[in-house]
Amino acid sequence: MDVEEVADELYGLDPSVFVAARTGRVEQAKARKDRDAARALAALRKPTTVGWLVNLLARESPDDVSAVLALGDALRQAQRRLDPTALRELSDQRQRVVRALAERAGRLAAERGRVVGEAALREVAQTLHAAMADPDLARTVERGRVLCAARYSGFGPAVLESVGRGERSAAGAAAARKGSGAVSLGADAREVARAELTAARASAEAAREATDVAEREVSRLDAEAAEIADRMEVLRRDLEHLEQRDAFVRESAHAANAAARSARSDLERARRWESEAEAAVEDGN
Known about the structure:
The protein is mainly alpha-helical. It has helices spanning about 5-10, 15-30, 35-40, 50-60, 60-80, 85-110, 120-135, 135-145, 155-165, 170-175, 185-285.
């Protein structure tokens, strides 16, 4: 049994059926006495909904995913070159394409009968951002083997660290040689820092938008929960009324049955009396 092929198959499945499918494949491997494959398959972990969504993207839109991940390399190159213009453009492009891919993941899920919320799609976007910064995670994404959401910490710190280690301007170096202790970043480095600030502000704005969406969703769900609670209270009152009505009807039915039995007894007695009276009349004749 080809474990990699089976793993690809399993990680393309909805998480709700992953465990059952994995168990079936493990049993098949055991039936073939392929213990190594059975152990390897049993060790495969079930993906979260977010992991499944990212894996769907890798399978259904591999070119788009590869293009997004390639932006990570381009951003790192722009940082190394201290190219603020490229950095700004790539940062803007990163936000657009990641958002588009997250929306694509939601549509793919809907095509498979799954409705996923905004929170899950935000985590898909965060995972793609993280993969752009982490080559190992990028390879995992491209293979469609993501287990859960990953968070993007940003490209900024890496740039500032490289500047601090030796990309100082001539003026900054001269100041250091004079023993002033001050470090000047230089024009190019300042431009990169400004570009990073612009990118950070764009990320913050995206986060604010996501927060607004989440808060609106919370408000909507709170309102829906209050409406459901009101409806449940009405239903409880209706149920209480129906229970009281049921008890009354049952008591009335019991009384009616007793009255019917008494009436039937009276009818039987009346019929016997009638028969006896008719017999007496015939005897008198």
